[in-house]
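CO-FOLDING WORKSHEET

Operator: S.A.
Ligand of interest: inosine
Run index: 341
Mode: holo prediction, single chain
Checklist:
[x] sequence pasted
[x] SMILES validated
[ ] output reviewed
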Amino acid sequence: MKEILKKIPKIELHCHLDGSIRPETMYELLLKEGEKLEVKDIKEFEKLVSVREECDSLKEYLKKFSYPLKVVQRGENIERITYELLEDLSKQNVKYVEIRFAPFLSMEKGLSFDEVVSSVLKGMDRAKEEFNILSNAILICMRYDSGENSLKVVEYGEKYLGKGVVAVDLAGNEHDFPPEIHKEAFQLAYEKGYNITIHAGETGIVENIPKSVELLHAKRIGHGIAAIKDPKVMELLKEKNIFLEMCPISNLQTKSVDSIEDYPIRTYLEEGIGVTINTDNTTVSNTTLDKEYEFLMDNLGFSIEDIIKLIDNSVEAAFLPQSEKEYLRKIIKEELSIYKL
Ligand SMILES: O=c1[nH]cnc2c1ncn2[C@@H]1O[C@H](CO)[C@@H](O)[C@H]1O
Ligand SMILES: [Zn+2]
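OUTPUT RECEIVED:
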């Protein structure tokens, strides 16, 4: 591990709560629920809930969410895993994080929408008090869900806007469910003043990127790997100042690119597209922001100065008012100066 990466202040914009539950906590909570686990210890369990080399697609990757989903059905669990994720991130010197989750996925055993959202917000408040880490939430609509359910996410979530919730997202199996299914919901979100980010072009479907920008009002795109296929799409991203939330380790696991050399980040930066680096799912992808940056340094020749520029992009792309971005820039600059960076 490049030692300096551990120390520098960082920002996380694309992190799924259910994909980032501490394995020890998940194991404990599953056993408490009486779940029969066919593993002999926590080490084996960790393998069960994170992807290995055998993963060949996004669909395969998404299968890893079956255990996390079992533990996000109680308010106290949701609050705890939010708090613990923020504790872990604060130890890695992450200053600000946007945590995303799909409320409807936590409503399978009777929790209400409000119970789910307020549990996340409680975890965030507690972490802010104790670890001084700032965070906001992004509500996810699931692609396979009906357009009506996505509308409900937008409608029910409105009262939390500006009170911990800053945006809505669309996630899940991109291969079988195009963005336009959810057009109405995102139109409403736009009108209500939500920020919008959409998972698009993650595993090859380039047209989902312009659709997300033009039909769903996306200001940021999750992954966007397929933009490399079409110069017009890259031009659109640049022209509209759409930031990409790239997650290199996850992208390799889902086979978004064939090899590291094909990872399009350099081209995007040369084209003037705003790129940010994120983890996607710390547990499922077995990663951290430090590992993601280290990966860029080891495999794609990024320097620490390049990394600092990427972190500054994350500040710019954050769903925060200018004054809060300025505050983040100030504290980041102060800390970097300690290391003469
Ligand atoms: O990289 C991804 N692409 C698409 N969907 C994802 C990704 N990571 C997680 N999820 C989906 O989002 C849900 C809510 O967090 C997860 O349960 C998973 O199904
Ligand atoms: Zn994601």
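REVIEW:
The pocket of inosine (ligand 1) is lined by residues 16, 18-19, 58, 62, 65, 101-102, 105, 140, 171-172, 199, 202, 250, 280-281 (CB under 6 Å).
Residues 113-131 form the longest helix (19 residues).
[x] output reviewed
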